[in-house]
Design goal:
single chain; alpha+beta; Arc Repressor Mutant, subunit A; Beta-Lactamase; 2 domains; six-stranded antiparallel beta sheet; three-stranded antiparallel beta sheet; transcription; transcription regulation; DNA binding; WH_DNA-bd_sf
Length: 267
Amino acid sequence: MLTSSSEDEDRAAPPRAPLRVMQVIATLAKHRNGLSLSQLSEALQLPKTSLFSLLRSLESGGYIISESGHHRLGQETHSLAALIQHTDGFPGNVRPWLSQLHKACEETVMVGVPADNWRHLVYVDVIEASSWLRYSANVGAHRPLYSTSLGLTLLAFAPTEQQQRYLETSQFEPVTAHTITTREGLMKAFRQIQEEGCVCSAGSIEGATGVSAPVFDSEGKLYAAVGMAGPTTRYARNVERFVDLVRQCGAQMSRALGYDGRYPGKG
């Protein structure tokens, strides 16, 4: 237990102390069974002495539990996480990055998830472009998975069994001249999307092109897809920039959901 007064502690605390607290909590959140002091020290590149004092303080507040030489998250941390999730859950917790994408590309941006039956994409958040010529979509609207950029992203990173079930039980009708309508074509597209980490598609609405990237959760599993869409003429002038912006947005949203960059693979 620390013996100095709270006022003295505040004066003595280095400016990086609050950041280190969050780094400790974030690191332990990725290890359900906890970590030893040595493992935490190595992961955070912090001296054991200062880290030990930090852990003792967190333990006294119930944010950390220390047992048998291992440290894991305590009830207070879990309660805080539940409160944050309740007050600002998905998609609200990734809205800042969607707004950033909207400002950067000046096109309609959206977040989508698969419907319960995995037949359609459902928009759960949309910010439309201000231009009079724009891609228009509403929260709650459904779109076919196979013909939209967000839908193709969801299918490409879905579990293999889900992919196969969709391909075997779905009918594919052309929506535009660019819509992929064969199972072989879709499987090829899935492999390319996995390799590139995004998809550009003009298969949903004639004259419009969309770009989409996956969003993963803390376990590395597909959670949603984020993307932008607009007139193909404007897209053609900004292909590389739009692709980079959407990829970056997907990565930022994934980190916000606890994803650490490791993709567990399909299955």
